[in-house]
Amino acid sequence: MFDWTSKTFVDVAIFVALIISSLVTLFLFTLPTQYDPCNPDLVQEDVPEEEKKKSVDSAYGYFNKHRATNKALKVEGSTQVVVLGDIGRSPRMQYHAISIAKHGGRVDLIGYQESEVHPVVASSPLINIVPIAPIPNLLRTNSKLLFLFVAPLKAFWQAWSLYHALGYRAKPAKWMLVQNPPSIPTLAIAQFICFFRNTNFVIDWHNFGYSILALKLGYGHPLVIIASLYENLFARFAFAHFAVTNAMARVLKEKYGITARPLHDRPSAIFKPLGSDERSAFLSRLVETAQYAKDLSKGPKSPWRLLVSPTSWTADEDFTVLLDALVSYSSLVTSKTQLPKILAIITGKGPFKEHYLSKIRALNQDKKLLNVVILTAWLTPEDYALLLGSADLGVSLHTSSSGVDLPMKVVDMFGAGLPVVGWCKFEAWPELVREGVNGRGFQNTEELLHLLVDLFAEREADLPNLKKGALKESSYRWDDEWDGVAGKLFKLVK
User: Fold this and answer.
1) CA pair distance 169, 106, nearest whole angstrom
2) Which of 15-29, 116-130, 299-313, 411-425 has the lowest average pLDDT?
3) Is 164 a domain residue?
4) What are phi and psi of 477, to 5 degrees?
5) Does the pLDDT value for residue 126 go beyond 90?
6) Is 131 exposed, middle or buried (0-12, 13-18, 19+ CB in 10 A)?
7) Taking the model in full, what pTM does it have?
8) Which pLDDT does position 81 carry in this prediction?
9) Cβ distance 136 to 116 under 8 Å?
10) Residue 340 located in a structural domain
């Protein structure tokens, strides 16, 4: 039998203490490099000779012109823009990066690199993409039961990958702008890095992480309660906050006691209204619309209407509402010959895509969509913008888990001059869509069906009026909004 003597105990205790001490020392010596505005290494980039010859009118030229006389100038605008999601499907965070670079700030854009990014992000010499290691397929599941077991492992993987990307693969910066949600583990890791790097932590509130989790588990679930407390705690440590709506800023003030600057989504320059020739050319080129292009280009007399519904195929968008409305519409076309047929294109990627595709296949097999064609597409940013500019009507099914966020897709539609019908049963909807002016709202399948019938046939004159409102809305752009709010906070705009 093992003789556990006091000497043995002391030896083991000393050994454990040495191990712990060594690990702590190693941790302290390998902490991420601190941000220092006087450190020339943060601004002395490797500059190709051809880049040096470029006009100083560009952001890079501006950076190069001033670096010799004031090395702190561009470091003061240096920012880590963080999204624990696909960069290509995070337009708002890409717009942040573009705006910072436009004013001469250096940007590390950190997130998953799963799809094509905005062309300006890809081409800007001041924007460096730092990809986060992707989540293994083993940790991806839509099962509610498996979610409880997989979620902690997924969070641990994301925490380590994010920590490594923020602390060791991205340069120190004065600012860190983090998208929320997801809040777990993003807020904790980001705050930890900011503390040790002397970086200002800024949260860009798109929604509340706990409210999205509640869609799966319910608001009374212990994990949802913990997530809410976690989000509340780390929100209070941030240097500043942006909110996508006034309603969200109000909730943050009332619930968390923090003051957020409302920064409304606006479209970038890539989204714009199209002329008839541009529209016809695009419809003829795009694979999904090519065979219908001739009919779609006939204007009001066309036997077809092009309907577009962008989506992330997530739990906060119930596509059953749209599918049921299209089934009923198809049945009506048989008896009401004045109704045009519908070509509906659903764009995007997401976890519930295959679920709804199987439903669409079943409806086609049962011949319930004889007068409606439903197609799905994943497009480049340029083609996505052109598709919105070519459509007759946009549909938003975003239901808002919190009630105070807004869908970016509607902003893009307005940028392209596209009128919108959307789920309107949440508080922030009127901040974006003015009923009967640039769009219409619905709260169930029947109301959506009536809107399609009204706008495409019975009250067809209403659609051009909504189009005028959407065209007017297209004049409000991201730069105008960003410069007056975020640009002033980051001291890039006076």
Assistant:
1) 15
2) 15-29
3) yes
4) -115, 160
5) yes
6) middle
7) 0.81
8) 97
9) no
10) yes
